[in-house]
Amino acid sequence: MKIDIKKIIISIFVVVFGFAGSVWAKDVIPIRPNVNQVQSVGLYQINDDVKIYEEPNEESNILYRVRWNNDEFFPDEIGFDNFFVVFIAKKNLALVAVTDYTDDWVEIIYDNSTGKTGWIKMDDPYKFMTWINFYNSYGKKYGLRLLKSSPESCKDMKAQTEDMSKTISVINYPKKINLNVIRGNWALVSVMDMDRTPKTGYVRWRSDDGIRYFFPDIK
Questions:
Q1: DSSP 8-state secondary structure symbol assigned to residue 25
Q2: Nearest residue to 180 (alpha-carbon basis) of 191, 190, 194
């Protein structure tokens, strides 16, 4: 029997890369600014089986029971992209946006496409991070990246934390944007552009009404 080596190689390629695609496709990282998350105050690391209530009370109406694993999400009408702000299976990161919280409950955005919210009971208060804490932790570790469709003015590096402050440099083709410190809606960053010229200055990481333009470049 004649063996068709070419067909075997193609079959292996399809199986291996097709499988890899199905795994990596589940990762969720912000690409563009999301106006439906402007009222959020932070992020919560969520479990793989939670009930979303209409009010912060277990006697309240249950809106959804959400269950997920690394490959599947239920219910289908929500899905990975609409539910998570960040989902990276290999790093065990499953973060949702929080709009309010009490001692025992967090109000989360369970549909990022519409901004719909509901309440879940916290199993661990230390799983909640404010946006500042999240950026200080993950932004300083991985650096930042500018989200697509952000205003061009976000590339301006300022001498001070003011829109009218002098522009001392511009981010062009950065190899990495290092986060030094967050001050309000501004971030002091150090950038090494493709021309290998080091630059340091303040950039707007979010607007005054909470739209985030930069996001931790988690890899």
A1: T
A2: 190
User: Are the C-beta atoms of residues 180 and 189 closer than 8 Å to each other?
Assistant: yes
Q: What is the CATH number of domain 140-216?
A: 2.30.30
Mean pLDDT to the nearest integer, 152-158:
97
Q: Comparing C-alpha atoms, which of 98, 50, 91 is closest to residue 74?
A: 50
The pLDDT value recorded for residue 9 is 44
Q: What is the pLDDT of residue 5?
A: 53
Q: How far apart are CA 152 and CA 42, in angstroms?
A: 26
Over residues 179-206, mean pLDDT: 93
The predicted model gives 18-43 an average pLDDT of 77
Query: What are the residue boundaries of the structural domains of the chain, listed by start?
Result: 1-123, 140-216
Residues 6 or more apart in contact with residue 158 via CB below 8 angstroms: 165, 166, 167, 168, 186, 201, 202, 203
